[in-house]
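Sequence only, no structure available. Ideas?
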Amino acid sequence: MARKTIKRLETDLKNMEFLYKQELEENKRLKNLVTGKDVIAQSEYDLLLKDYEHMKDMRDNYKILYNNLKIRYDELKDSTAINNQTIKNSRGAGRKAFDNVNIIKRIYELYIQGNSLKEIADILNVSEIKTKRGGNWSKSSVRFILLNHKNVENEFIDEDTYNNTIKLLSDRKKK
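Reply:
I predicted one. Tokens follow.
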């Protein structure tokens, strides 16, 4: 969703720049008509004036659209979840959330029992359990599962288990 929004912002900005250049050209033509440098019929003048107003309205609409999209993009950029599936990290990169309930519960159980992140990754890899993207487990992929609050929101685990895990992660990091 964020990429589409960014792409849409870029497209709208290009359109606004194009319309702005056209508006400047129309403005020059109208000034020349007013000063009498280029004399044309009144009907042609009215048509040019109508086109100029139309372009100005379009540019104003693009500005409104851009501002609305910019606000939405900024809200998404600052949020932790783009949607139910994608979690944004500090760099703004998205990861698909792992959603196998049994594996998620098993990861929490193994960690609470005292296994390290590496040991859990090795257990999952030996069991030939793949990540969401079909790869092997690493310490960071296990850690991502343990820190993902969506597991509580989706009721894969309870809040107490999550909080205990966070405390254990913090305590083990200090050692």
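The CA atoms of residues 104 and 145 lie 7 Å apart.
Hope that gets you unstuck.
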